[in-house]
Sequence to fold (203 residues):
Amino acid sequence: MTRRTLAPRLLAVSLATLALALAGGAAMAESQYGSGTGTITAQAKVNLSVTVPKLILLRVGSTNTTVDTVAWTSGLSIPAVPTTPLAGVNNTNVDWSGAAPVVTPTATGNTLTVYAWTNAGAGTINCAVGAWNAIGGPANADFTVTTTGTLPHPGANLGACASTTFTSNTVATGTWAYALGGAPASWVANTYTNTITYTAQGI
Fold:
């Protein structure tokens, strides 16, 4: 009676083990066989797959979280001597000819080093200028940008922000030098601020 009882149990255990092996989803390779006379063959194929995720990098000026500020301070000169006004004074005599003062903006930190890299099929950079904090100052088109190196600025001036491209898998670098033109003598006294946003995109 013991043998008759164990045999069905062993069969049940074997079937259960086979079912678990099939349910485990183990990878099964392709297999063939060849048989007969002369040259015989059997082939097996293996698929290769390499995944490279896209990456894009952009740096304008300083690294990490530092946002650089390109600043201009207008110097005023009173004709005819000429005379530079002193700060924080009142009722100060001056030899004024009656002509309009000369206004000359001087830049600080106006040249930035830029870098870009991507392994996407093509890389592009575009720019967008935000809203000025006040009216009465310079226009976007008054700011021109001169490029040196292999990474051109997206637009010759900030009034014509466009798009520029750079080569994949090659570090593009250069400098962007910002210059301020326009008619400074016509601007109302104030501190005018704005932000340019550069966006690099990999396609």
User: Anything to note?
Assistant: Residues 56-86+95-202 form one domain. The chain is about 10% helix and 30% strand. Residues 1-25 have pLDDT under 50 and may be disordered. The first strand starts at residue 56 and ends at 60.
